[in-house]
TrEMBL record:
Keyword Oxidoreductase: yes
Keyword line: Monooxygenase, Oxidoreductase
Coiled coil: none
Organism: Gordonia lacunae
Pfam family, one: Pyr_redox_3
Keyword Oxidoreductase: yes
GO MF term (any one): monooxygenase activity
PANTHER family: FAD_NAD(P)-BINDING DOMAIN-CONTAINING PROTEIN-RELATED (PTHR42877:SF4), L-ORNITHINE N(5)-MONOOXYGENASE-RELATED (PTHR42877)
Name of the protein: Monooxygenase
Length: 492
């Protein structure tokens, strides 16, 4: 039976997928004093901040949803960004979570107060809040990475980053430059090319682009069936979770299945791009599946339109009129679209987080982010992260990982609720040991065979090598011997 108690008070930072999952999970387990502080003007995290043309989830929507809020009636198999964002808003409203989320509130500082075993949290507006527990659900893909290109600030036209899209920028009938060829660059090129007067895609490192029918609609009959048979819907979700584990396995471990997908990637390029020179320039210098996989049903067609151009020469500078490349050519441009990704290194920053004995997170993570079971950090009592260091990425459901981590945190909230326990802090030894085992587990995977992920390159957050089943078992047995348990005076 669920008991209610206002202690511990919990502050969750961030109202994206992880923050919404945590809020709902904690409340449904009887924790009533839970507040989410969200910097943005709405919930949704990346789906609130990213609004670029063509934004589509490249993970099927029937898996890209909360287990506790199934949505049978997605319009497409791979839903667009606006529909996903509406879903987040609807979930928050329908589950009665809105009143617990404070929008437009940026946390700038969180400090552990040993005397009261609580965190003091300050916001950019000068508000001060106190809670026994802080949960950072701040997301890795948050801070846009702006490239350092000489002259970018002298450009006379408009410059827009995909992660902060400006809807007032006109792209129709203009010459557009898109820089970057990750999942975002490929989507934005496909979306802008039709109405542009000319579009040039600047590709520093070509990517393998797996063909998939991304514009496929989900049939109304499927929606009706899933609506009528919730058990079948839940079953489909489970099957898709298993499928994502197989995909993660394909991505990380050498096998015949991996080779089959690699062949499919090569065929996707070969069959869609018949021009040999263009194909050569679109061919990466690494094996397929060595980076987070890009999926598109339209990119290769888009780049072959007569008014589309692929430029693989290095960019040397931006001039007032356009972009100059290493061959000395200046490419006239009206709008520069930066699809240059995120500063993953800045995870949980620029907040100042000060733990026990004045230790800052910057100190603790000087050699890179690390945590015990992806969520607890030595030196930071009563503080947890969701989708933190080494969390599964790529094809594994973020909602599922968030749910498992939130359930794990609930265990510690229950200890704090039971009375007597005032603080829980993972030990250094347990964290060391966990990260050593993590490195060992990665040994037979591609991450140690010269194949690097976007996470390793961009932010030293490695792909977690475990599958959802083992992930669940890693998170479901909190081990008290690995934690310092603080108790109130007199409680021993
Ligand atoms: O960013 P990226 P993204 N000059 O970091 C290039 C998720 N996502 O926004 O490879 C020229 O992948 C850089 O070139 P290089 C997904 O998890 C999900 O596309 O460094 N180019 C690269 O091509 C993904 O992993 C969905 O040589 C420069 C690009 O910019 C993550 O977001 C949809 C440059 C950055 O690629 C990030 O993807 C979209 C320079 N100076 C995204 N600087 C879903 O559907 C950088 N680049 C779930």
């Amino acid at each position: 039976m669920t008991t209610t108690n206002t202690r511990p008070r919990v502050i969750i930072i961030g109202a994206g997928v992880a923050g919404i999952t945590a809020l709902h999970t904690f409340r449904s387990r009887g924790f009533t004093d839970v507040k989410v502080l969200e910097k943005g003007a709405d919930v949704g995290g990346v789906w609130h901040w990213n609004r670029y043309p063509g934004l589509t989830c490249d993970v099927p929507s029937q898996i890209y949803q909360f287990g506790f809020a199934p949505k049978p009636d997605w319009s497409h198999i791979w839903a667009g960004g606006a529909e996903i964002q509406r879903y987040h808003r609807a979930v928050v409203d329908e589950l009665g979570l809105s009143d617990h989320i404070q929008l437009n509130t940026e946390v700038v500082d969180a400090r552990w107060e040993a005397a009261t075993s609580s965190w003091t949290v300050r916001t950019a507006d000068g508000e001060t809040l106190t809670a026994e527990v802080v949960v950072c659900a701040t997301g890795v893909l948050h801070h846009p990475a702006y490239p350092e290109i000489a002259g970018l600030d002298t450009f006379a036209g408009e410059v827009v980053h995909t992660a902060r899209w400006d809807p007032t920028v006109t792209t129709s009938g203009r010459h557009i430059a898109v820089i970057g060829t990750g999942s975002t660059g490929v989507q934005v090129v496909s979306a802008l090319v039709d109405d542009a007067c000319g579009l040039t895609h600047y590709v520093r490192s070509p990517q393998w682009v797996l063909w998939a029918p991304m514009s496929l609609r989900q049939s109304r009959c499927v929606a009706r069936l899933l609506e009528t048979l919730p058990a079948a819907h839940a079953g489909l979700h489970k099957i898709l979770l298993r499928g994502s584990a197989i995909l993660a396995d394909i991505t990380t471990r050498p096998s015949w299945r991996r080779r089959a997908v690699q062949t499919y990637a090569r065929m996707s390029l070969r069959l869609q791009v018949r021009d040999r020179d263009l194909r050569d320039r679109l061919t990466p210098d690494y094996e397929p599946l060595c980076k987070r996989q890009v999926v598109s049903g339209t990119y290769y067609r888009a780049i072959q339109q007569p008014h589309a151009h692929l430029v693989t020469e290095q960019i040397t500078e931006v001039t007032a009129r356009g972009i100059r490349t290493a061959d000395g050519r200046e490419h006239p441009t009206d709008v520069i679209v930066l699809a240059t990704g995120f500063r993953a290194h800045d995870y949980m920053r620029p907040m100042t987080i000060v733990g026990r004995d004045g230790r800052t997170l910057d100190d603790a993570w000087r050699d890179g982010p690390r945590a015990y079971r992806m969520t607890a950090i030595p030196g930071f009592p009563n503080l947890f992260t969701i989708l933190g260091p080494n969390s599964p990425t790529g094809s594994i459901s973020l909602q599922h990982t968030s749910q498992l981590t939130a359930d794990y945190i609930v265990h510690w909230l229950e200890q704090l609720r039971a009375g007597g326990v005032t603080s829980v802090e993972v030990t250094d030894e347990a964290t060391e040991d966990y990260n050593r085992r993590l490195a060992e587990a990665m040994e037979p995977t591609v991450w140690n065979t010269g194949c690097h992920s976007w996470y390793i390159e961009g932010g030293s957050i490695d792909l977690f090598p475990y599958m959802p089943s083992t992930l669940a078992s890693l998170l479901d047995t909190p081990d008290h011997s690995h934690f310092h348990i603080g108790t109130a005076p007199g409680d021993g």
